[in-house]
Write a structure and sequence with these properties.
Keywords: Calcium, Metal-binding. The structure is a single chain. By secondary structure, this protein is mainly β. It has helices spanning about 80-85, 205-210, and strands spanning about 1-10, 15-20, 25-30, 45-50, 55-60, 70-80, 85-95, 100-115, 120-130, 140-150, 150-155, 165-175, 180-190, 195-205, 215-220, 230-240. The protein contains 2 helices and 16 strands. β7 (about 85-95) and β8 form a beta hairpin.
């Protein structure tokens, strides 16, 4: 995996520089002499890191000619939105001072280039919990459409499954692309009208790529407006191609 960071920053008349840490990989920016409270770095950094690193840490220091460099604060940036969107345009992140207060901002632009994996992913669709019941006079008949990159598979329909269907089905996907997540769309089968969408769940894959196995856990099911509409329980297994 790789990320490119474009930096601007705000940190009194000082000589600021940044230490960037993402997993085990670290980079140091150049020092802006007399940069004061509005230094401009305009630098890019490339990180080659393992799957699933959750955050980027940027620590700001004032370079001292005599004595120890002084900490000016730190910002910690969650990377989950970056993994999902592949790019984040220049965004302001607050800098937390050593005393815990916040002062100043750093501006970063982020890009993500996923690693291409090759192997087989097995997804265990266990059950749904508190799903939307779309039928007025009867229990819904839920099923799932599971999408992994360009591959789509359909679960069986659980007749009268209602809000808590139990599928207990496994699905196999061939992985040979920059896939980072699986999309699960849940529907209620209708006989005379179009099937109703019950919601969508996104299952990130970085953990199973790193560890090989993720036991069944709950993932939120969201409606069209992002509102919570229950949960779906999913387990994952990944076997890399040798």
């Amino acid at each position: 995996m790789r990320r490119i960071f474009f930096l601007l920053g705000r940190s009194g008349k000082s000589d600021p520089y940044c230490l960037l840490s993402c997993g085990p990989v670290k980079h140091r920016s150049r020092t802006i002499h007399d940069g004061g409270s509005d230094p401009v770095w305009n630098q890019s950094f490339l990180f080659e890191i393992l799957d699933g690193v959750p955050e980027l840490s940027v620590s700001v220091y004032d370079s001292e000619r005599n004595g120890r460099d002084e900490s000016m604060g730190v910002t910690v940036i969650p990377l989950a939105p970056l993994y999902m969107n592949r790019q984040i345009e220049p965004t302001k992140y607050k800098v937390q001072l050593p005393n815990g207060h916040f002062h100043g901002e750093l501006v970063l632009r982020l890009k993500f280039f996923p690693k291409v994996h090759h192997g087989q992913l097995t997804l265990h669709l266990v059950k749904g919990h508190n799903l939307l019941d779309a039928d007025v006079f009867d229990k819904s008949d839920p099923y799932a459409i599971i999408t992994c990159h360009k591959q789509k598979l359909k679960s069986r329909v659980i007749e009268n499954g209602g809000s808590n269907p139990n599928w207990d089905q496994t699905f196999a996907f061939t992985i040979d692309s920059e896939v980072t997540e699986v999309l699960i769309k849940l529907f209620d089968r209708d006989t005379f009208t179009a099937d109703d969408l019950l919601g969508t769940a996104i299952v990130p894959l970085h953990k199973v790529f790193a560890e090989g196995y993720v036991p069944p856990m709950d993932y939120k099911v969201l409606g069209k407006q992002g509102q919570p509409q229950g949960e779906v329980t999913v387990g994952l297994k990944y076997v890399p191609k040798i």
